[in-house]
Design brief:
- It comes from Poecilia latipinna (sailfin molly).
- It catalyses: GTP + H2O = GDP + phosphate + H(+).
- InterPro entries: eEFSec_C (IPR049394), eEFSec_III (IPR049393), EF-Tu_GTPase (IPR050055), EFTu-like_2 (IPR004161), P-loop_NTPase (IPR027417), Small_GTP-bd (IPR005225), T_Tr_GTP-bd_dom (IPR000795), Transl_B-barrel_sf (IPR009000).
- The chain is of the alpha+beta class and 576 residues long.
- The chain has four domains: 198 residues, P-loop containing nucleotide triphosphate hydrolases (Rossmann fold, 3-Layer(aba) Sandwich), CATH 3.40.50.300; 80 residues, Elongation Factor Tu (Ef-tu), domain 3, CATH 2.40.30; 129 residues, Elongation Factor Tu (Ef-tu), domain 3 (Beta Barrel); 95 residues, Elongation Factor Tu (Ef-tu), domain 3.
- Strand 5, helix 4 and strand 6 form a beta-alpha-beta unit.
- The longest helix has 16 residues.
- It is elongated.
- The protein starts with 9 loop residues before the first strand and ends with a strand.
- The N terminus is likely disordered.
Length: 576
Amino acid sequence: MAGNDSRAKTLNFNVGVLGHVDSGKTSLARALSSTASTAAFDKNPQSRERGITLDLGFSSFTVDCPDHLRDNEGQQQYDSLQFTLVDCPGHASLIRTIIGGAQIIDLMMLVVDVVKGVQTQTAECLLIGELTCPRMVVVLNKIDLLPPNKRQSAIEKMTKRLHKTLESTRFKECPVIAVAAKPGGPEAPELEEPQGVPELIELLKKQTYLPKRDAKGDLLMAVDHCFSIRGQGTVMTGTILQGSLAINDTVEIPVLKVTKKIKSVQMFRKPVSGAMQGDRVGVCVTQFDPKLLERGLVCTPGSLRTLYAAIISTRKIGYFKGSLATRAKFHITVGHETVMAKVTFFGLPPADTEPTPSEPSSLETPFTFDREYSYQDEYVSRQKEAASGPDPEQWALLEFERPVTCPALCLVIGSKLDTDIHANACRLAFQGCLLHGFEDKSYAETSLPQLRIFKTKHKEGQVERVTDDYSVIGRSLFKKETNLQLFVGLKVSLSTGESGVIEGGFGQSGKFKIRIQEGLRPETKQLLSSSKKKGKSGGKGGPSSEEEPKTESQSVSIHLHFKRYVFDPHKKMVQS
């Protein structure tokens, strides 16, 4: 807030109104609201036709500041409390907008149709709430649709059911209140008063707290609407996610790579000299075409980074049913953008994941380029193995289909938004925190080779024959076309216990020579000479010579173990 203004001070408290499509969120916001901000109530023509909110509508109403918001000395810092209602869209396909709106929300208001109860999207809203918001109020709407004689018992039944659903979430004791925001439905004339709304306002007041607002740090503002005013300039309305702004500050619109100077600042149509984190503002700049930015981020010049790829910590979302496979594509919501990305999961090598008795297993291992990691075909989930305890620590490399602009260390949500909207399944798959970003377009050549994620390989072949006490000829370990030079010098072990080193190729068919430094044991030589006699009949290179030792269980196998770094351009093989 502009603290030095002589004007009365207002605390802005952001309430996210989430819920299933058609649960009556917009009517509820309208019933609650007195000052509708520009973006509010369905400015989208598509939305107006269907009566469904498409963009994050914002509207607000102001009440007296409740007593419990006094500071430690009992002083009232604020004269009034302004609730900004962030109406988040309900359709499943628009879940990305919700995730965009959820990062600035101080309290969630989950609207549930009292007749239909919890639906797929309601569950997804709960998840987003859990990831982004500490408190929630549940509003049972449309109680006018219940027959008056059964109304009370139906409300009690639904309240019980909701408490059961919420038991396993961070909102387990949250209040549930019943209302009818628009008796008779959206088309009904405005004759009937909404029911339960004054009680809801009182409940909202009780739930408020002084949100942690910090004016320090770089400015980051989420713009949700942009329009021009003749003779004034272009107004961008939005919410300040972090930092602060003031008249004459220069701000950057990173997507467009342009900077602009702030001419004036308004909060709900009243001019102010500045604003800070959590405030909802209109910022006026000149010589800027509003069509270039409908929504997006505005920041302190140079503070946001544009990333082509990123490394994140990952946790699977429990309700997601599928597996999370490496190389699969997910919708990644990061900052205020949702973009497709290819995902590679990796974790600590097996030896590092066993906690030593003295060390608690919940220890967070920070990600660093100095450590080696092991490649995973998919996210490893304890749930899948029916084991208890948290999932092992894991990370993911995200390779974006187009660059994204986002703040450091922001929340990342991965989802499968192409899943059928009507399938009753949660589409939010994993969440994490952005740990490292790659800003170089050619990161695959310049930076990825430093990311040491390895795959362990195991190849198995057979000893074909003994050449002398210190060397054998092997086969079936390599394809004919393999360049054997790459493998020269690698260690191998025989199933009989000896170890040796590959010396080079032998002939043209992928056979090779192994040097056994310690020499062959007498029993190995005997074993090999006995199996060799059996297979003489096949002649050189005939089909039976390929299969000779298989007739005899005494064949000696050769084992080659090595690891290869996934992003090593030279595909070098490494043995420990």
